Each structure stands twice: as structure tokens, then as C-alpha cells.
Amino acid sequence: MLRVQGIDVFYGSIQALKEVSLEVGEGEIVCLIGSNGAGKTTVLRTISGLLKPRKGSIEFMGERIDNKRPSQVVRGGISCVPEGRRIFPGLTVLENLEMGAYVRRRKRTEVSEAMERVFALFPVLKERARQAGGTLSGGQQQMLAIARALMAGPRLLLLDEPSLGLAPFLVEQVFDAIKRINQEEKVTVLLVEQNAKMALEIANRGYVLVNGVVSLHDTASNLKDNEKVRETYLGG
């Protein structure tokens, strides 16, 4: 489904990614783990079209997308939930969701059906549909951010640190939602997550990013058993 091949990405003169390659197959959950500053968010921003690789290519469903604008990437079937949620705090929950459906705004039936599905996934959002997004709890805001991304009808969902700043019981709720989105909504997931233990619990495969370079790639179960991964990312 997604193929990132040998991309180099720079911020000015500073190289953030060095010949990064990864693949995500349809129906998979693939995680990208690494420490702060490893380049994980840069990978997602580049796939989303917010950054352009200086070298290499990105293909989605067999089509090159590294030359496309972010809006074209979204229309093509990729949605991203950014780090820090970035909901619209002054808009209601319903208005936030409608903003997520902007690319489908002329397809009212599809938008209505998508709204029902996200309310089924996150019932609390339906209860608080008329409430301003900024008044929700951190966990509810994260659910809203994910739901907003789903309103565009993606085939591939990019998630950047969805557990960041959440209490442990909320982290479990969010990861359970990710599994349901993958299994019930048939949405493929590329997950960037510092909580490597939780990420590897739900992922099929994983990549380890170190200083902008993919240092390891394996099945999630093998990564969990890898001594170096256990010591560095799983607390021994």
C-alpha cells in the first residue's frame, strides 16, 4: 500500500532523515519507534506532503505522492493525526468533525455515514457534540483528533504519538480504538509512538529509527524479544 524508498529529508542544512525506507501493507498496523529527535514525526510529515524529500520516493497505492500537496495526499486516501492533537478548541465537537470531512463536503451521504461510524467508535463525542473542543479532557481531545482524521475516509491513517500526555487508562482506551479502527473500519495504520511496549502489542511489524536512519525492521513479536530493543525502548 505505502512504499517509502530511500528518502533524504532536510530542515535547511540539517539532515533529518537518511535513506529511510519502509513499507506498510494493506490491513497492517506498522509502528515506528525511536527516541526523541530520531526523525519519527519527520517521516509522517513527509508522507503527508508537508515536507519534500531531497532524494528518494514515496508511493501510495502504486502512485508517486512525494510531489503532491498535502490536500492532494488527503484526497488520495491518507489522513494524519498530528502530535499534540491540534483540534480547533473554539469549535464544537461536531464542527471539528465537519472540518475533517472537508474533502468530502459535497458527498453528504458519505459524510453522514462517516459521522455515525465515528460516534459508534467514540460514544463520548456524540454525547458532547455541541461542546467546544477546548473544554474536553485530554483523552477526549485525542479521540476527537482521531475521529476528525477518519471523517476524510482514509485508507491509511498516520498517528503521531497518540498516547502523549495521557493517563495510563486513557492510553489503553486510545490503543483499543486504534485496533478497532484497523479491524472494524478496515483502515491501515502507521503509528509513531514513544510508548514502544504498547505500540508493539498492537502492531504487526515495526521499524526502529535512530538519528534519522532505520536501524532495525522486524515483526512486532521479534522486536519485543530483541535484547537491544528491550534494553533501549522497553525498560529491560
Distance between the termini: 34 Å
Along the chain, the helix and strand elements come as EEEHEEHEHHHHEHEHEEHH
Q: From the alpha-carbon coordinates, what is the Rg to the nearest angstrom?
A: 17 Å
User: Beta fraction of the residues?
Assistant: 25-35%
Biggest sheet features: 6 strands, mixed
Describe the model.
The chain has 236 residues and is α/β, with parallel strands linked by helices. The chain has 10 helices and 10 strands. The protein has helices at residues 40-47, 70-75, 93-100, 108-121, 123-127, 138-150, 168-183, 196-202, 220-225, 227-233; strands spanning 2-11, 14-24, 29-33, 55-60, 63-64, 78-81, 156-160, 188-192, 205-210, 213-219. A 6-stranded mixed β-sheet has the order 6-7-8-3-9-10, sandwiched between helices. Strand 9 (205-210) and strand 10 (213-219) form a beta hairpin. Helix 3 packs parallel to helix 6 (138-150). The longest helix is centred in the C-terminal third of the chain and has 16 residues, at 168-183. The chain starts with a strand and ends with a helix. The model has no long low-confidence stretch (mean pLDDT 93).
Task: Give descriptors for this structure.
236 residues, alpha/beta, 4-stranded antiparallel sheet, 10 strands, globular
Break the fold down into its secondary structure elements and pairings.
Layout: E1 2-11, E2 14-24, E3 29-33, H1 40-47, E4 55-60, E5 63-64, H2 70-75, E6 78-81, H3 93-100, H4 108-121, H5 123-127, H6 138-150, E7 156-160, H7 168-183, E8 188-192, H8 196-202, E9 205-210, E10 213-219, H9 220-225, H10 227-233
Parallel strand pairs: 3-8, 3-9, 6-7, 7-8
Antiparallel strand pairs: 1-2, 1-4, 4-5, 9-10
